[in-house]
Amino acid sequence: MKILVDSDACPVIDTIIATAKTCDTPVILVKSHDHYSNDILPSHVKTIYVDPGFDASDYKIIKLANTNDIVVTQDYGLASLLLTKKCHVIHHNGFLFTEDNIDRFLLTRHLSAQARRAGQRTKGPKPYTNENRNTFKSLLNQLICSQK
Questions:
Q1: Do the beta carbons of residue 48 and residue 60 sit within 8 Å?
Q2: pTM, rounded to two decimals
Q3: Which end of the chain is less crowded, N or C, counting CB atoms within 10 A of the terminal residue's CB?
């Protein structure tokens, strides 16, 4: 088992790295060359850079993901594809994408895109809170421990 992170806009990378270290779980950060970093990361963390093209990170994550891997993403489309591979897909706000809820997320995304194309304004994401971070950390820890 490994943790794959759609990391270009992920606010919980430090939390993922710290939580994974306590359970000796490898982490792979997938990010665009546009977000290149010289940061020195712990030995259990690997960074894979992809071209900045549309969905390049998503395609790489799909290629790397195996059954029972944990994937952190906020991308509903990517989450739906990973569920078919039997991955555990977690949003950084601390909830799991499941077969029971993914259709609702995809429909919401579709309706919001339609509204924007029609000239309507849609709300952006709410500010990220410590409560979100704690909920995420708890769920990630639970997922890692259940796989060991």
A1: yes
A2: 0.88
A3: C
Instruction: Report yes or no: 100 and 106 within 8 Å, Cβ to Cβ.
Output: no
Count of other CB atoms within 10 angstroms of residue 13:
18
pLDDT in tens, 87-129: 999 999 999 999 998 878 787 877 777 778 888 887 777 888 9
Between CA 87 and CA 22 the distance in angstroms is 21
> Phi-psi region for residue 8, left (φ > 0), alpha (ψ -120 to 50) or beta?
alpha
Distance CA 146, CA 148 (A): 6
- Residue 126 is given by DSSP the state P
Longest pairwise C-alpha distance within the chain: 49
Domain 3-147 maps to which CATH number in 3.40.50, 1.20.58, 2.30.30, 3.30.230? Answer: 3.40.50
Radius of gyration of the chain (CA): 15
Q: Under a CB-based contact definition with an 8 Å cutoff, are residues 86 and 66 in contact?
A: no
